[in-house]
Write a structure and sequence with these properties.
single chain; 240 residues; mainly alpha; Arc Repressor Mutant, subunit A; Four Helix Bundle (Hemerythrin (Met), subunit A); 2 domains; two-stranded antiparallel sheet; 2 strands
């Protein structure tokens, strides 16, 4: 008779509430740091310290994401982001965060906040800063067949404008508003004309380069109207 004890088979990492909370923090981290495909996450110890969580719980969250194929782990080389990381993070948000119920309020807040950020960016950003922003817009022009890539670019575009305003309080407020926007996009708001959105980004940056505050803020409002219209369409379809 074999008296050796059987080793238990490891079970998949389950998404506990604590892991879900860390996934929410990771989503915000990825958005605010502008991380995209191929970018490397900080080492676990450093990332846990930045998120103010324990390393074992962070590791459980990373394992959960790894099982879904949205991270690439290289032994001794670090953990790297795959293209669909933000989409998965958006779909596993904490139910207490408000989700789609907040999107109308988020859009309303952005209507008030973004003109201020654009005005400050025009006043404080250098020509080189604005030219770099324009370059980022052109880089995504070849990816209009990839909605997830566009949505990630759009978030990073608005984060960069907020940072060019050089007001950390307003910048953090803007960053906090973008996470529920991305969640809404990836859950059901897909009816956005990406070519038109790209043209709007180009026009906003062109006006900023001319230091035309009135035109840049007007164009920013037009850009938000497209998102608001897409939300209305999605809400109507969901209730039909």
């Amino acid at each position: 008779m074999n008296t050796r004890q059987r080793m238990p088979v490891p079970s998949p990492v389950r998404r506990t509430r604590l892991v879900t909370l860390i996934l929410d923090q990771l989503r915000q981290y990825v958005i605010t740091h502008g991380l995209g495909e191929g970018d490397r996450l900080p080492p676990e110890r450093e990332l846990a310290a930045q998120l103010k969580v324990s390393r074992p719980t962070l590791r459980a969250a990373l394992d959960w994401l790894d099982q879904r194929g949205v991270l690439r782990r290289v032994q001794g080389g670090g953990t790297f982001v795959r293209a669909n990381l933000l989409s998965v993070l958006a779909q596993c948000g904490d139910d207490t965060s408000g989700g789609d119920d907040r999107i109308d309020e988020v859009i309303e807040a952005r209507r008030w906040l973004e003109p201020t950020l654009i005005r400050l960016a025009i006043k404080r950003a250098s020509d080189a800063d604005l030219e770099a922003l324009a370059s980022d817009v052109e880089q995504v022009a070849t990816q209009l067949d990839d909605a997830d890539a566009w949505f990630q670019h759009d978030l990073q575009f608005h984060v960069r404008v907020a940072r060019l305003a050089q007001n950390k309080v307003l910048g953090r407020l803007m960053e906090s508003l973008l996470s529920p926007v991305f969640t809404a996009w990836t859950s059901h708001v897909r009816d956005i004309d990406l070519a038109r959105a790209l043209a709007e980004h180009r026009a906003i940056v062109a006006a900023m380069l001319r230091r035309d505050t009135e035109e840049a803020t007007r164009l920013g409002a037009v850009h938000l109207e497209q998102l608001e219209q897409a939300v209305r369409v999605a809400s109507f379809k969901a209730s039909a």
